[in-house]
Amino acid sequence: MTESPETTLLRQQMEALKYVRLMPASWDKRFILNVCYSKNPTEREVMMIERLAWKYRRQLKAELVPANNPGPMPPKPAFVEDSGP
């Protein structure tokens, strides 16, 4: 079974981000170490990986960097409280 080109690029970005020089105890470092070792990142995690690839683009290979700045993250969906039975 072959992966799509997008999935292959995502896996390569995740692998490369593990070796980027980061500030100690930063949010980026915690996120990368937690998410990059997971098998199936969520949609928001994929967007964040793309943003981090842009942020650390000078430390990554050119083919792993997004063509354009991915921009801000979309807002999280609003929490709807369950009314109960």
Q: What is the makeup of the main sheet? A: none
Basic shape? globular
Question: What Rg do the Cα atoms give?
Answer: 15 Å
Our count of helices gives 3
Mean pLDDT: 83
Give the low-confidence spans. Answer: none
| Strand fraction | under 5%
User: By helix and strand content, what is the structural category?
Assistant: mainly alpha
Helix content: 40-55%
Q: How is this fold's topology laid out?
A:
Elements: H1 5-17, H2 27-35, H3 43-55
What does this structure look like?
The chain is mainly α and about 80 residues long. It has a domain at about 10-65. It is about 40% helix and about 0% strand. The chain has helices at about 5-15, 25-35, 45-55. Helix 1 packs across helix 3 (about 45-55). The longest helix has 13 residues, at about 5-15. The termini are far apart.
